[in-house]
Structure formats: C-alpha cells, structure tokens
Amino acid sequence: MASRTFQLLLEEIRQCTTCAEFLPLGPLPVIQAHPKARVLIAGQAPGKKVHLSGIPFDDASGNRLRLWLGIDRETFYDPHAVAILPMGFCYPGTGKSGDLPPRPECAPKWRATVLAQLPNIELTLVIGQYALAYHYPSVYTSLTEAVLAWRDRPSNVIVLPHPSPRNQLWVRRNPWFETELLPNLQSRIAQLLG
Predict the structure, then answer these.
(1) Is 69 exposed, middle or buried (CB count within 10 Å of its CB: 0-12, 13-18, 19+)?
(2) Secondary structure (H, E, C), 87-107
(3) Residue 46: exposed, middle, or buried by beta-carbon count in 10 A (0-12, 13-18, 19+)?
(4) Between 20 and 30 A from 14 (CA), which of 48, 106, 130, 176?
(5) DSSP H helical ranges for the chain
(6) What's the average model confidence in pLDDT over 8-16?
(7) What is the pTM of this model?
(8) CB 130 within 8 A of CB 45
(9) Among residues 45, 191, 53, which one has the least CA distance to residue 122?
(10) Positive or negative: CA dihedral 80, 86, 88, 90
C-alpha cells in the first residue's frame, strides 16, 4: 500500500505545473526516489541537458558526482539505493552567469511530503549553494566554510560543492576536498550501498 501511495505522489509531482509560466522550456519535473533509498542527494535544479533527457544528473556534473561518490551509473540510478531530490524539480532557465536559481515554489510545495516517505535515508548530500541555503539557512558564510565543516556536522549530512566542471578551480584551491573528504565519503557510500 505504501509503495502505491508513493507512486501516486511521484505521478502528482511529475504532472506539477505550479510555476510553468516562469519556465522557459515548460515544466518537466525530474526526481528519483523510492522509500527504500538510503542515500539522498539534495541538489539544486536540473540543467538544460537534464531537462531534455528527463534523467537527473545526466550531464558532465553527474559524471563528476558519480566519480566523487565512487559509484557506477547503475547504482546511482537505482531509486532503491539513491534518491535524487533537488530544490527545484524543473529547469529554471539561464541567467547571466549560468542557470537561474531553483524556482522558490518547488521545495515548500513538495519537499517535506517526499522526505516523509523516505524513512530509510542514512546519508544526505547537500549539493551547491541553493541546497545549502535551504538546509542550513544563515549557518555558514560561504559554501567553502560549509564543505570544510564536514567533520563538525552529524555524520549523516555532507555538504558538497556543485560538481559542475565550472568548479574545477574551487577543487584545485581546496586540495583537502579530494584527499580527505572524498575518501571518507566514498567509504560511507560503499558501506551504505554495498
């Protein structure tokens, strides 16, 4: 019964048109979830390529994120293992320096309802500044500070920079990210997902 209820929720989300008037390519909510999922990826919003494919992280950012997590595509796209719940489910369009922020209507409308149906989440990955602002409002002065504080937070939440190739410079400037945080993260993911 619970699984059928969850499927109905996903269908309702995929038919959402709440902010259609603001979306340059129209609504196409992208979400991956199942009540058995143990890892939650709290991302920002789909990019244009993801909008066109309808598959979360189906782009260079996704390739890099899977590398950071140390998992293959099959594991990453198994909703029984990994839930992907961005702050905004639809592509918001492009601004002057990249994609626009996730639409503000999405998270308040759907997030709590979906999370209530994901009782087995043991690790949440908060990815990028918009997800950080939602999960930790006014706690950190920068994304770098939040990522660097990985040892100080509960072990079930890890903040990551967005895996966009545009963040190559950030990764180079913060070598501890690849030498300390990522090995720890990969070990946790391996324990959770086998």
Answers:
(1) buried
(2) CCCCCCCEECCEECCCCCCHH
(3) buried
(4) 130
(5) 2-14, 48-53, 60-69, 73-76, 106, 112-115, 128-135, 143-148, 168-173, 176, 182-193
(6) 97
(7) 0.95
(8) yes
(9) 191
(10) negative
The residues near 71 (Cβ < 8 Å, ≥ 6 apart) are 82, 189, 193
3-class state of residue 157 by DSSP: strand
* Residue carrying the six token digits 């293992």: 81
The pLDDT of 138-149, averaged and rounded, is 95
Q: Does residue 77 register a pLDDT over 80?
A: yes
Are 157 and 126 in contact by the 8 Å Cβ rule? The answer is yes
pLDDT digits (tens, 9 = 90+) for 80-92: 999 999 999 999 9
Burial 115-128 (b: 16+ CB within 10 A, else e): bebbeebebbbbbb
Token output for 76: 């990453």
Distance CA 45, CA 56 (A): 9
Q: Regarding predicted confidence, which is higher, 175 or 138?
A: 175
Helix (H) or strand (E) holding 42: strand 39-42
Residues of the chain above pLDDT 70, percent: 99
Rounded Cα distance between 90 and 77, Å, is 18
